[in-house]
Design brief:
mainly alpha, 76% helix, 0% strand, globular
Length: 82
């Protein structure tokens, strides 16, 4: 019996939960504070993380949501780490 569908579902839910945590940290200071109200690109990133995280957890529009979130993470990497 193949465990691939179960493993992929767990990976999708864990990744979505992490996106949701980062988005709620930006907007609601939960589970930790990110320092004030988001503005500019942080506002856009927070909206994408919350909406995309919810969509991924529910399994709705997973491919378009994952595509948008991967683009956001690529942009964040090159702006902050590269």
């Amino acid at each position: 019996k193949s465990f691939q569908p179960v493993v992929l579902s767990v990976l999708r839910i864990v990744a979505a939960y992490l996106f949701l945590l980062h988005g709620t940290a930006k907007f609601f200071s939960f589970p930790m504070s990110m320092g004030g109200a988001p503005e500019g690109l942080m506002l856009v990133a927070g909206i994408l993380e919350i909406v995309g995280g919810i969509l991924l957890i529910l399994g709705l529009f997973t491919r378009p949501a994952a595509f948008v979130l991967s683009g956001q993470m690529a942009a964040a990497y090159f702006m902050a780490h590269a």
